[in-house]
Amino acid sequence: MNGRFHISVHILTLLDAAKGELVSSDYLAGSINTNPALVRKELSNLRKHGLIISKEGKAGGYMLAKSPDQIRFADVYEAVKQTAILGQARNEPNPKCPVGRQINQHLKDMDKEIEDAVIKKLYDFNLADFSEKFY
Amino acid sequence: MNGRFHISVHILTLLDAAKGELVSSDYLAGSINTNPALVRKELSNLRKHGLIISKEGKAGGYMLAKSPDQIRFADVYEAVKQTAILGQARNEPNPKCPVGRQINQHLKDMDKEIEDAVIKKLYDFNLADFSEKFY
DNA sequence: TGTACTGTAATATTTATAATTACAGTAAAG
DNA sequence: CTTTACTGTAATTATAAATATTACAGTACA
To answer: If exposure means fewest CB atoms within 10 Å of the residue's CB, which of A15, A134, B30, B135 is most exposed?
Structure first.
């Protein structure tokens, strides 16, 4: 996987710490140690998934869309997931081989089961509990 | 993640289908649709983890090291895993920020829990059951 | 002694990820 | 009504990771 889950959780933790104050993408980028445009892109995604809200214009910024105990990490995961947990081959296996012909489907089925287990587990983690660890 | 889990499972499935006959890396590469050197590298790793055995020299090749019902996909996963399930940021977060200073450790702890859940789940998948799907 | 393999390292290529730049749009404040 | 400080988003460039390729030494059988 890539770093998107980390960045999203980092953003949400900072927004939680701000307790409703609007926070700028510049500030967030400073703590994450990356650049504001990338953070805004991730914020855009989080907003699309209903986890944060934003305000444009001068004195604008970002805040959580709901209370931190309602932000489950399963939601965050769903918001950023893009690749299979068990990975994915770049090349199509050989369709002339009985194994090659079917293996992708079988691996995909298995991946689905694993992902369900992950999401079920992540359902028990929420932002409120996570934030508490920092104090 | 990358394609290593796929390749390893593909290899093992083909070796299982060969029922003890030695199989060459060339043949494996043909079904997987990649090149033999890469397959041998993966075979080397699987051997290191006790899942296959190899024979050098002319008429050499590869076969399973144990019966397919004893090859759990949790073992395969352990053999190829390298990155965190929840990903990892490239940059160190800002140590001057209370959140940035601690977040990596907290994310790592969470990742550990998720990974344990994945492995527990993968423990129920074995090569024998997987191979059956192909007939 | 030739042949058909494995084992492994070094290098090149491709793809994925992240960083940067740029600028239009918006709203507050003077 | 203009400046200022933000967001939103796209386009481009840079960097890192993954995979492919090449090469060749080592091994065992015939």
So the answer is: B135
Q: How far is the CA of B105 from the C1' of D6 (A)?
A: 32
DSSP state letter for A71: -
- Structural domains of chain A in order of their starting residue, each with its CATH number: 4-134 (1.10.10.10)
Query: CB distance from B92 to chain A under 8 Å?
Result: yes
Q: Which residue of A11, A33, A133 is the best one to mutate when testing the B interface, meaning the one whose CB has the most B CBs within 10 A?
A: A33
Indicate the pTM of the whole model: 0.94
Angle (CA) B99-B104-B107 rounded to 5° is 105
Question: How many Å lie between the alpha carbon of A55 and the closest alpha carbon of chain B?
Answer: 23
Q: What is the mean pLDDT of chain B?
A: 96
Mean pLDDT on B61-90: 95
Q: How far away is chain A from the Cα of B76, in angstroms, using its nearest Cα?
A: 11
Instruction: Write down the residue that tokens 């409120």 correspond to.
Output: A128
pLDDT in tens, A82-115: 889 999 999 999 999 999 999 999 999 999 999 9
